[in-house]
Every structure is written in structure tokens, then in C-alpha cells.
């Protein structure tokens, strides 16, 4: 059993059958980057149709038990997530309603500062704003997991402190292992470890670097070194894999509607396009290599199980909540 | 036990305590007249807060059992409804999501023709439009009751025929008893009777007329004559009572954003303002007079029970559905 803490892009039937072949039973999917409330409802509607049309291979998970059940049935459980808080449109009351519609993971902000928090790409991280504190408390109550992957380190530390429940960094790496604005300081990783939070280690070359994007043993070496910082109960997988992504998708992801100019996101002017996948991760089916890769760098079976799914299941259990309808 | 098929306006704690004193255990509340999706979410959010803040006297009902339970607990069950389909914003996928958020009754259109159907106030009733047919089928599936109170007679007859489940006219009267554009033809009433639908008889003077707005016996006489047309299983109560309504509320209800001019809705240039309540219905507590009023015009206890709550409970049981969350 494996859970991927974050993927994005245009999923189709092929995505699910290949994730299944890759040993993945649960995956947090990205339902939006910049979309407001109505566009987010459209996205959720499209996701419901996609899952209904492929119910033999996929399902939507609202609880950890749904993921376990999907694993037993040989289906892939999609956990609905958003990489930005724009779906709330500044309205505290919308949090519980989106939770009722199945949304379980929301990132406080994406690449830009917003009304909740500062972003990893801003020259200055504002720290957690008033609405951010309100939304975290409401997400705690409504049964949603707070995600700080693209959030600045300062805001992330404040979110960890403000949240009554442990939080996640669903897809990032340790900045001390591969320096990048998107990666997290050791302070953040230690704070996650001390509070029951979890970081999903990414397999996106732009934030993983070429060495850790080599053979599977080298990527698992990065995981082992991340465990040294955050602890064995706080490290998991969050590949950041993008399905069927094309140039317009990258443009939307990076520029949204916020600039007439060019922004490279996690890429750079020198390497602006699609980053090549890690050597070990040419196709989704290659995810089957992870369990053995973890054993090869010295993890016990029990430890490898925590990394591949146990830590996410535990965190989801502490944060998700099935609401009345 | 009594169920009021439709009320509107600004409910507050006083509304619930007085409805309770009036013997009302369930009431369909109007969460919107012209509001789009986001404004409708705002309205639902405000309703949730209102109910949470008054949980000792009120609750939200998603099933008929919730209403029965509320009656036993001495609370008033609010059934969330909209008097227009604008909340869907032309999107079929939003129907099931609003159902999941607790919306149980939606009128196909309000005073103006829309993308679903023709209105009772248009010079020509367009009949049921393509999107209207789609929405009815989706409402059937998602567990929402179709309401045609302000819908034109032609569209209403087509809606009754198109719907796989019985429909409601939550608040109107028989046009043959008091002629008014808002009231329903005998054809519509008979069609309701033949298909398990229900009409909630209104106690709004503009569409009830002065005679049937006299003492309680006269209003119940109207109900008896409506039963003669539609049958004992298809007549109930839908007072159309407005709580804390002021001039700006009437302006929004009648003109919304669709005209720079003046529209009188169910009122008229000759009597444009707030209609005086029926003589028997000066205050909410007066609703206690209904059961005896019904007995006084010849209904048996069993028949009176159908009119005060049994018919609504039966129809809600056939149409409402608790959805997964």
C-alpha cells in the first residue's frame, strides 16, 4: 500500500490504472491552483464525474478508512485537495461547506501571498495573517488538513503553532539537502516532527535536484536524511507528479491571472520548460520501486510502511472528519 | 404537529420561538430569490450560523425523520429552500453539491422566465426549457423537491410530466377560487393530485383575497374547496409568511437586479405595499387555530393531519435523500 501526498494535472482513466499498477492506493489530487469558489465547484463537479465514470478503478476518499477500503478493492482513492485558499473567497463560512463536499486538504497559499499567509516566493514572508488564523481554526473544526507546501517558512512555523491539529507539507523537500525557495528549513521539519506533522518528499526535479533525481536509491537516501531531521513518524511521499500537463497548464499554474509577465515557478529562466522526471520515475508504474528502495537505504519494513502510507493514514485520521449531510 | 411548506424573510430567534408557539415543527425557509451560487453559499452559511446559535429551539432538517425528531424535541426544523434556480448558475453539476449542503427544495424559476422554465408573470409561458428538464432529472436523483409555485401553469404541467418524482407547489392557491396570476389552474391541481404532488395553500392576502383572508373558518373553507379539486392527499399548508420584511426586502424580492423600473410582484399599483395579514393570522402563534379550523369545515382528524403535516412528510419522504459526505 502506498499513498502519494500530492499529485496534480489532468487525471484520466489511464492515470488511475497506472497508479494502481504503481502500487498507489491513495493520492491527494489538486482540484485547483487559483480558482475562486464557483470555479472550484466546477472543478469538484468535474472530479465527481471523472470518478463516477471510472468507479471500477477509482473512488473519492473522505476518511482514512475509505483509502484502506480502496486498497482492498484494488481501486485508487482520490483525496480532494486545493493548492490555494481562493476557493473560500475570503469567507470563513465556506470552509465547512467545502469540507462537506469532500475537500480534505487545502494549502494556505500557493506561489503568491494571499489573505491567509505569505508564500515561499515572496521577497518577504508576511507571516500568518488574521484570516489565515481564522481559516486554520475552521479547518481544524471542519476536518480539513492544512497544507503549507508553497507557504513561506515563517508562515509555516506560525501555522504549525496556530493549528490545534498537526499540519502537512504535502510536497516539498528539505532545503538543507537541496536548497530551493520551495523547500523547507530544518526548523520547519523539526517543528513538524515535534507536533505530529508530516512532510511528503517530492520527486519533482526542480526542487529535488539532479543527484536525488538519480536512481531510486539516491532518492531514498534523501528520504533517509529527511528522516534524520524530522523523525520517522513525520516523513512520507508527495511526488508532485503532474498528469497530462501541457504548456498552457504550466502557464496557468505559474501566472494564473496575476501577471502580464512571465513567472517560472519552481523552474528558472535557464530551464523554463517541463523538468525531466527523476531517472527512477519515468512512468507512474515506477512507483513500485519505492518500498524496496527504502529497504535498500536501511529502513526496516515497519519504517518503510510508515513512509509509504502509515504516516499519511495516521495524520489523515487525526485531521479528516466526516461531516453530516 | 404542523409543517409550513414555505415561509421567507429574515428569521431570528423570535421567529423560531413563535413558530413553536404556533405549533409548527417544520418549515421550508427561503434562502434566496435571485442569488447566484456564491451568494447562495453565503446565505446557507448565514443560515447554518443562525441555527447553530439557536440550536435549543431550531435545527436543519435533511430528512422527514429530522422533522419528526424536531417535533419530539420541541424544536423547529428548517428545511432549506430557494425560490429560484439561480444558485445553479447554469451548471448541472451544482445540483447534487447544493443537495449535499442540505438544500432540499428549489423552485424552477421565480417571477421571471429563466433558463429552466416560464414564470407565472410572463405574458407567455415558454414551457419547460432544456436545462429545466436536465435540472428536474438531477434534482430527482440528488434528492431535492421540485417547486413550481411561481412557475407558469404550462411549465408546471410539463414539469409534473417530466419529473420522475412528484413535485410541489409549496405556496399558492387555486386560481378558480381566487383568480391571480400566481395561483394555479384546476388542470395543475388535478395533475398534482394524480401524481402524488402537493400544493401548500397560501395565507398571503395578495393571492388569497379578502374573503379567504377572513376568520380561520373561511381560510379553511378555501382549503376544503382546494381538496375538492386536488384530493385529500395533495393539499397542505404553505403560508408564504415573511419574517421581518421591510421595503428594501420587497424591492429585492420583486425587482432583484432585473429592472430599473418598478414591479409589484403579487401586489399591484393600487395596493403596492405590504399586504395586511389575514384576519385570522395576525401573528405566528395564530397558526394554532388551523387544526380546529379544519375540523370546523368538516375534515376528520385523519384528514386534518394530512393537511397540517402528513402530506408534506409523505412527499418529502418520496423526494428527499440523504447524500454521502
TrEMBL record, chains A, B:
InterPro entries: Metal_Hydrolase, Pept_M19
Top-level taxon of origin: Bacteria
Pfam families: Peptidase_M19
SUPFAM superfamilies with a match to the protein in the record: Metallo-dependent hydrolases
GO BP terms in the entry: proteolysis
Entry's Gene Ontology molecular function annotations: metallodipeptidase activity
Protein name, entry field: Peptidase M19
Source organism (scientific name): Mesobaculum littorinae
Amino acid at each position: 500500500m502506498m499513498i502519494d501526498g500530492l499529485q496534480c494535472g489532468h487525471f484520466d482513466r489511464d492515470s488511475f490504472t497506472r497508479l494502481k499498477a504503481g502500487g498507489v492506493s491513495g493520492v491527494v489530487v489538486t482540484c485547483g491552483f487559483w480558482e475562486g469558489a464557483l470555479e472550484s465547484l466546477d472543478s469538484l463537479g468535474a472530479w465527481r464525474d471523472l470518478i463516477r465514470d471510472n468507479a471500477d478503478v477509482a473512488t473519492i476518499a473522505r476518511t482514512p478508512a475509505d483509502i484502506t477500503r480502496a486498497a482492498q478493492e484494488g481501486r485508487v482513492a482520490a483525496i480532494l485537495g486545493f493548492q490555494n485558499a481562493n476557493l473560500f473567497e475570503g469567507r470563513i463560512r465556506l470552509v465547512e461547506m467545502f469540507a462537506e463536499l469532500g475537500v480534505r486538504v487545502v494549502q494556505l497559499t500557493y506561489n503568491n501571498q494571499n489573505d491567509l499567509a505569505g508564500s515561499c516566493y515572496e521577497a518577504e514572508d508576511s507571516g500568518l495573517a488574521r484570516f489565515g488564523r481564522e481559516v486554520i481554526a475552521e479547518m481544524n473544526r471542519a476536518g480539513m488538513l492544512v497544507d503549507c507546501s508553497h507557504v513561506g517558512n515563517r508562515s509555516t512555523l506560525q501555522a504549525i503553532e496556530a493549528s490545534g491539529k498537526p499540519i502537512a507539507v504535502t510536497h516539498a523537500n528539505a532545503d538543507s539537502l537541496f536548497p530551493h525557495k520551495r523547500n523547507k528549513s530544518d526548523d520547519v521539519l523539526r517543528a513538524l516532527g515535534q507536533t505530529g506533522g508530516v512532510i511528503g518528499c517530492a520527486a519533482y526535479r526542480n526542487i529535488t535536484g539532479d543527484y536525488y533525481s538519480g536512481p531510486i536509491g539516491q532518492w531514498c537516501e534523501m528520504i533517509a536524511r529527511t528522516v534524520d531531521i524530522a523523525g520517522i513518524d513525520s516523513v512520507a511521499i508527495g511526488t508532485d507528479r503532474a498528469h497530462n500537463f501541457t504548456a498552457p497548464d504550466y502557464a496557468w499554474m505559474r501566472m494564473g491571472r496575476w501577471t502580464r509577465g512571465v513567472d517560472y515557478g519552481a523552474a528558472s529562466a535557464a530551464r523554463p520548460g517541463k523538468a525531466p522526471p527523476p531517472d527512477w520515475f519515468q512512468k507512474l508504474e515506477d512507483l513500485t520501486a519505492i518500498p524496496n528502495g527504502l529497504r535498500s537505504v536501511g529502513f526496516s519494513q515497519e519504517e518503510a510502511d510508515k513512509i509509504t502510507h502509515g504516516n499519511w493514514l495516521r495524520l489523515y485520521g487525526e485531521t479528516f472528519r466526516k461531516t453530516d449531510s
